[in-house]
TrEMBL record:
Record's compositionally biased regions (Basic and acidic residues): 47-60
Name of the featured protein: WxL domain surface cell wall-binding
Pfam family membership, one: WxL
InterPro entries in alphabetical order: WxL_dom
Biological classification of the source: Bacteria, Bacillati, Bacillota, Bacilli, Lactobacillales
Domain of life of the source: Bacteria
WxL domain sequence ranges: 31-293
Renumbered residue ranges of the record's region Disordered: 40-60
Signal sequence interval, chain numbering: 1-23
Keyword entries, A-Z: Signal
């Protein structure tokens, strides 16, 4: 079976819109459809039996597939060139006003023969894609005054994932078939492939979410000391809303006029000291789900 791959652009996504199937007028066509045990839907990993909508991202098809990949948004910060940065990502939001959760990828395995591996690779460095100064060229000027074709990048910036866990977002499957999750913190280098989770034999059958981080409510229910999610307030102790935080967040269907910003300590972006040009940077990540015995 071919690998199932999804390309994720941090800060922005490439969407694949599906068209509705319509029968042509005047043609006697009969159609019937069947769906697998796990329909093409995404659920909240902390409350898997409740309907939810985490916004649209790319997905794959088939009995072994990826239903959802996480976005990673980071707020703007003031440029200070003589310091390192450690930025915390936004949590996973939902379009129906649910409480935020950790960022997650959801997969499904409906095959008779099971076993799979889920990996993640950062294909490119964070590169300047939207310059705040429209008159500024997105190129470097060399000491000799020539224009370099090299674009501005956050050199050495690394994304890290921690507090990973598996959510059994399907019914009727015991914990004995829980996939193996990477227990150490994943600190990503550009071009290197990292295995996030794997399953062998009957393990990993069904629908699963692999999650980075969890809410305070989930932590208390499961015996953890505290969650990784933190609500954000301004200097007057008023909730900071998405409308004043992330540009174009409404593109994902979240209620940015009501949703309070939450940070997820389980997803970090570390940027070493360097000269940084103002603007929005993005990087390309690839999730790969591979059939494995």
């Amino acid at each position: 079976m071919r690998d199932k791959k999804i390309v994720l652009l941090i800060l922005f996504f490439l969407f694949v819109n599906s068209k509705n199937a319509l029968a042509d007028e005047g043609i006697g066509v009969g159609k019937v459809g069947f769906q697998g045990r796990y329909p093409d839907e995404v659920v909240n990993p902390e409350k898997p039996t409740e309907p939810s909508d985490s916004g649209k991202t790319d997905k794959t098809k088939g009995e072994l597939r990826i239903d959802y990949v996480p976005y990673f948004f980071f707020d703007k910060v003031a440029i200070v060139n003589d310091k390192d940065y450690s930025l915390t990502a936004h949590a996973q939001y939902y379009t129906k006003g649910e409480s935020p959760t950790g960022n997650f990828v959801q997969i499904v395995d409906e095959r008779k023969e099971n076993g799979w591996s889920l990996t993640l690779k950062q294909e490119s460095e964070f590169t300047l894609e939207e310059d705040e100064n429209a008159k500024s060229q997105m190129a470097n000027i060399t000491q000799a005054g020539a224009i370099s074709k090299e674009t501005y990048k956050l050199k050495g910036a690394t994304l890290s994932l921690s507090n990973l866990w598996a959510s059994s977002v399907h019914l009727g499957v015991s914990t004995s078939v829980t996939p193996t999750i990477k227990s150490d913190v994943i600190k990503m280098d550009v071009g290197k492939v990292y295995e996030v989770a794997n399953a062998k034999g009957e393990v990993g059958k069904g629908r699963w979410a692999i999650v980075a981080g969890y809410s305070e409510e989930y932590a208390q229910k499961n015996g953890s000391s505290s969650g990784t999610l933190t609500p954000v307030f301004d200097k007057e102790n008023n909730p900071v809303l998405l409308s004043s935080s992330i540009k174009n967040i409404q593109s994902y269907g979240f209620d940015n006029e009501k949703q309070q910003v939450h940070y997820n300590e389980a997803v970090k972006l570390n940027i070493p000291q360097q000269e940084i040009h103002s603007g929005i940077y993005q990087a390309k990540f690839v999730w790969t789900l591979t059939a494995a015995p």
